[in-house]
Amino acid sequence: MREQDGAPADVALEHVTVCYDRRAAPALDDISVHIAGGAHVAVVGPNGAGKSTLFKALVGLLPVSQGRARVHGASPGANTVCVAYVPQREEVDWHFPVTVFDVVMMGRYGRLGWLKPAGHADREIVWRSLEQVGMAGLARRSIGDLSGGQQQRVFLARALAQQPHLLIMDEPFTGVDATTQQVILDLLHHLKQTGMTALISTHDLRLAATRFERVMLLNRRLVAYGAPAEVFTPAALADAFGGQMLMTPDGAWVVDQCCPAPAHRLVEEV
Amino acid sequence: MAGLGGLLEPLRYEFMLRGMAAAVLVGVVCAVIGSYVVLRSMAFMGDALAHAILPGVAVAYLVRGDLLVGALVAAVLVALGIGAISQRGLIKEDTAIGIFFAAALALGVFLMSTARTFAVDLTHILFGDVLGVGMADLLLMAGLGVGVLAAIALLYRPFLLISFDTVLATTLRWPVGLLRAAMLVLLALTIVVSLQTVGVGLVAAMLVTPAATAQLLTRRLPAMMLTAALIGAFSGLAGLYLSYYLNVASGAAIVLVATLLFALAYLFAPRRGVLWRRAIRT
Q1: Does residue A8 have a cis bond before it (omega within 30 degrees)?
Q2: How far is B39 from chain A, CA to nearest CA, in Å?
Q3: Is A76 or A17 the better-scoring residue by pLDDT?
Q4: For a surface tag, which of A36, A243, B58, B179 has the fewest beta carbons within 10 Å of its beta carbon?
Q5: Quick one: A1-82+164-242 is in which CATH superfamily?
Q6: Residue A98 and residue B221: Cβ atoms within 8 Å?
């Protein structure tokens, strides 16, 4: 997709349904939404809502059972270079003998292929990506010697080294330190200026409400998509979180099971 | 056997020279692909593949064909068979390996037992006969060994990614299943190359032990492979000298040297060794 270099990616889902098992209920049911290029979207919903499933379908890790997903107008997996995906941290072997620099250099593999040696420009991009996440000083460390937050930042740096148009991150704020959370938020703010589209799943509803211009509320179905104020209504939250929500006279409280305390007070007036 | 004279004396014999070349070759090739075996937890697969070549050797023996060719065909067939069966997801991979492993060993012994000189030849196949390596065998082993090393060098990035982060390999649309099969075929080739040196019973040790030792001493995959190769080559040479002077089985001596080196690294490796950590704690 060289001709589209520089253009922010838009994501179009038309009746997207994903089933892990033909007999079971679909993990994602009939999702239709259009995400404009350059938008930063927080994807929220209870555990099992299909957030990870949606992301995997978008990068071509899972087949779409029905409907159509399009990134840049092409099917998932066709844009291997311009879509970067940061999975949840559990999906990698942390004892593998690679350094921080090695991991970020893997972000260049999509453009280099199997054999082309990494050039000066590639190393420059790797160093710049490391600097953007504040990890340049630890470039020679083994990946296994890092804290969870540092590991998360390394994988974010690798995604940056891919120079993507669409950045997809699955729960980057779960189980990380305050520094890492701030680094990721600052970086997202910076990437927003460059026009990069970003989809970020999170259990932190306050973060989604305050730091993102768009929120996608999922619970297997698309419950709501739009600006935080439009999405976080008592009705939509009740629809998505059901029994995990408590209505009180002065607002709606949601307890998302990934971060049970403190409860998030989301809607001031009912 | 004191000093340099002791080291040079065995070199007067051509069979010793050929044996040493074979032992170094096997030590290096096994250690390099063994790094992936260790990192991908494929030790059981390596052992199973080694035993699975027995029926191929037996058939080749019975029809008076080339034993290496027989082994090669059997190993590649079993490698692909295990891959295909476990990929369907009906049974787990280690179960599939267990079934193939035992069945192939049984079939091999079954076929061998129909031949009269069965016991002697079976011993050679099970435990190796490095001093019996002929020039033609050595050339074939060297060709296969260099081929395996070249393939691992050319496939460095894809093998690294399917071992470290399959998700990235998949999102880049690299053929993960095909690459896995290619790695198994290379493993099968390596085992065939090792057959005459350490035998079916001990090849798993040459795959796993030097690589595991190197993992304790290094922090990056290329360094791990290089260190493992040096350890493997040294174990091959030292094992042969031991077998020459103590008149013991060469394959066993090679594996025991490698094991000793592992024990030393396990205890004394900087930062990771057991004693090193204890020293830091106190």
Answers
A1: no
A2: 7
A3: A17
A4: A243
A5: P-loop containing nucleotide triphosphate hydrolases (3.40.50.300)
A6: yes
